[in-house]
Design brief:
- The protein has helices at about 5-10, 35-40, 45-50, 50-65, 80-85, 105-110, 115-120, 120-135, 150-155, 165-175, 175-200, 215-235, 250-255, 270-275, 295-310, 325-340; strands at about 70, 90, 95, 140-145, 205-210, 240-245, 260, 280-285, 315.
- By secondary structure, it is an alpha/beta fold.
- The protein has one domain (about 5-340): TIM Barrel, CATH 3.20.20.210.
- Strand 8, helix 15 and strand 9 form a beta-alpha-beta unit.
- Helix 9 (about 150-155) packs across helix 10.
- The protein binds coproporphyrinogen I.
- Coproporphyrinogen I binds near residues 25, 77, 207 and 320.
């Protein structure tokens, strides 16, 4: 079906657009009362993720409520480790937790990977198909995955962490095992994302949420190499690479085989432009906390952001929106972009 609003797709493909497109990372979720009401009636987060018509419903909620230029499929990056054989739990108010973790090569040998693992995620593909049908071409639909390194970090650490020191220790002490796991994750992610595109995803975003905790040399060896392989393996949709806090890798992303470079809020627009050039499509990068400001300040800061990137820019935050962000602030942000000319 032809898209009625294809602004994001055109911008991602490098076209000059009448205004920049806008959406928010983590827009489908706890900022919306509709989401909280539905979520409260369920047994937990996983029930929502694994029930395709409900995942589709919360994917569309921000399109209805905020009038953003894209929908992002409601899911989580941790469905991949689970499909490979490492199940996760989402502990209320705490976040993800893995009852079993990866510590040795034999733990890795027990995992399944590639197409065989990806096929297990039929509930995600079904959610995409339903969403696509219900959106009826209103806006493009974004599919996503964590990067191999960010997923390895959770699989070894067993939960979220400020430092991910167990995961980093694994890279230093068992580099061969790490590469083996990263290879298996890459194969699974490529199969998974191509199946997502087949099921209706118009664009793909790769989240390297923990890229910035690696040293620059480690980043090259354990993350960027695999992200490149994935970008080269995805067919039929533009790809955004969002490597949080990995500002040191910007020179590598200049000619990287992806369409869009996602920027976190610590990266000054001019700094990014100097390295990436004027024509590289960038996405970002307002501080999520600026949405706590008053309406006037939000409007001014949003216009300044658009001005600073000077085109080839997809407006977004520099990371996911926080759950207690006032909806009025989010709306002021979106509406300022939409009225930009
Ligand atoms: O109770 C709830 O509703 C759980 C909160 C929640 C939500 C709404 C989690 C738990 N995941 C999600 C959905 C989700 N996760 C989306 C939905 C689509 C959207 O963007 O609107 C997306 C894209 C993700 C991706 C994700 N999950 C990332 C990468 C993006 C990022 O924020 O850096 C990461 C790191 C995760 C892991 C995860 N899942 C949930 C939490 C609380 C976390 C982070 C834990 C940690 O801090 O380590």
């Amino acid at each position: 079906m032809k898209l009625k609003n294809d602004l994001l797709l055109r911008a991602a493909n490098g076209e000059v657009t009448e205004r920049p497109p806008v959406w928010l990372m983590r827009q489908a979720g706890r900022i919306l009362p509709q989401y909280r009401a539905l979520r409260g009636s369920l047994s937990g987060f996983k029930e929502l993720v694994e029930t395709p018509h409900l995942a589709a419903e919360v994917t569309i909620q921000p399109v209805d409520e905020l009038d953003v230029d894209a929908a992002i499929i409601f899911s989580d990056i941790l469905v991949i480790p689970e499909a490979m054989g490492l199940t996760y739990e989402m502990v209320e108010k705490k976040g993800p937790w893995f009852p079993n973790t990866i510590q040795t090569v034999s733990d890795i040998d027990r995992l399944i990977s590639g197409e065989k693992a990806a096929k297990d995620l039929e509930y995600v593909f079904e959610a995409l198909r339903i969403t696509k049908k219900e959106l009826a071409g209103r806006v493009p639909l974004i599919g996503f995955s964590g990067t191999p390194w960010t997923l390895l970090a959770y699989m070894v650490e067993g939960s979220g962490s400020k430092t991910f020191s167990k995961a980093k220790k694994f890279l230093y002490t068992q580099p061969e095992a790490a590469h083996r796991l990263l290879d298996m994750l890459s194969d699974t992610i490529i199969a998974y994302l191509n199946m997502k595109v087949e099921a209706g995803a118009d664009l793909i975003q790769l989240f390297d949420s923990w890229g910035g905790i690696l040293s620059p040399t480690q980043y090259q060896e354990f993350s960027l190499k695999y992200i490149r392989k994935i970008c080269e393996g995805i067919q039929g949709a533009p790809v955004t690479v969002f490597a949080k806090n990995a500002w040191f890798a910007l020179p590598d992303l200049k000619d990287f085989p992806c369409n869009v470079v996602g920027l976190d809020w610590n990266t000054p627009p001019q700094y990014a432009r100097n390295i990436l050039g004027e024509k590289r499509v960038v996405q970002g990068n307002a501080d999520p906390c600026f949405l706590y400001s008053n309406t006037k300040d939000i409007e001014n800061a949003t216009r300044q952001l658009i001005h600073d990137f000077a085109g080839h820019h997809i407006v977004n935050l520099g990371h996911g929106v926080y759950p207690d962000t006032p909806l009025d602030g989010v709306k002021a942000f979106v509406n300022t972009v939409k009225s930009f000319s």
